[in-house]
Design brief:
elongated; 39% strand; Double Stranded RNA Binding Domain
């Protein structure tokens, strides 16, 4: 997955520390995913990470809820995952990427065993 197009949207309001953490998590995922497709012919591959935040007010408490959706286009098809929750955005992104990795491995293993 050397020539993968990566697009991350919805993090423009986050601080630089969070943005860098998300970039590193995505890079790590792409490296792991690339191991599965070393021997594939080059094809159009892309990873989209979409982050949405919702401000939730309850009494004196203002918290943000995050929703993260990923879409990975690979030689074996489209693979998607999503995660959401309150708390640290980086943790929610990592959870979503972990789900995506599990789905990718399952689909890859099924394709290889055919």
């Amino acid at each position: 997955m050397k020539d993968i197009h990566i697009q991350i949207t919805g993090i423009h309001d986050e601080d630089d520390f969070v943005k860098e953490g998300i970039d590193k998590a995505v890079e790590s995922f792409v490296q792991k995913a690339g191991e599965l497709f070393k021997k594939c012919d080059p094809c159009e591959q892309s990873l989209d990470v979409v982050v949405k935040s919702y401000n939730v007010s309850g009494g004196n408490d203002k918290r943000s809820k995050y929703s993260v959706h990923t879409r990975l286009q690979t030689p074996i098809g489209l693979i998607v995952s999503e995660s959401s929750g309150f708390g640290k955005l980086l943790g929610i992104v990592q959870e979503c990427l972990n789900k995506l990795e599990r789905e990718l491995k399952q689909k890859h293993d099924k394709t290889i065993s055919k």
